[in-house]
């Protein structure tokens, strides 16, 4: 019996992110008009207010807060806070749009081995952090020690004999 240690749950992709919001209408407008998401049909069996959107390969599900004033809106932009990140084609276009809309944002730069990644961080209407970046500039490189640890359930002799068979192929877009 072959054990899949790199994907034990056999996950295929990220399906959606669910966010509790103070105003479903405000959140839908922001994610639709600024981030380019498209509203999609939501099951009618739900007995609470919300909305579903889809774009960029992922769904965003909004759930109306039962107590909107208790949603803690973060004022300070902190790149180390929880956030979702989107890849973009033009950092300049994103920054211009943020300026045009009067949205406060923070720039960051990551440098690794001569490669630069630009990042823009800002909040949605409920204070949830969003990052826009050109992160695909950085290659995805598995850490050898992590691969060894992940393969601990597999016969080590088969790893040494054929290491390429035990590493998932990473595709760069």
TrEMBL record:
Name assigned to this protein: Uncharacterized protein
């Amino acid at each position: 019996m072959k054990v899949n240690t790199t994907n034990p749950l056999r996950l295929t992709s990220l399906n959606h992110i669910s966010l509790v919001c103070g105003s479903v209408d405000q959140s839908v407008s922001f994610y639709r008009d600024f981030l380019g998401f498209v509203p999609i049909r939501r099951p009618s069996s739900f007995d609470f207010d919300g909305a579903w959107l889809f774009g960029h390969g992922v769904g965003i599900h909004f759930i109306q807060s039962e107590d909107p004033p208790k949603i803690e809106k973060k004022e300070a932009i902190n790149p180390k806070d929880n956030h979702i990140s989107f890849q973009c084609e033009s950092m300049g276009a994103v920054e211009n749009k943020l300026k045009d809309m009067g949205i406060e944002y923070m720039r960051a730069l990551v440098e690794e081995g001569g490669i630069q990644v630009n990042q823009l961080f800002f909040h949605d209407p409920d204070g949830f952090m969003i990052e826009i970046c050109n992160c695909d500039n950085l290659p995805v490189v598995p850490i050898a020690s992590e691969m060894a640890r992940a393969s601990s359930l597999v016969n080590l002799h088969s790893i040494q004999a054929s290491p390429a068979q035990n590493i998932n192929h990473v595709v760069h877009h």
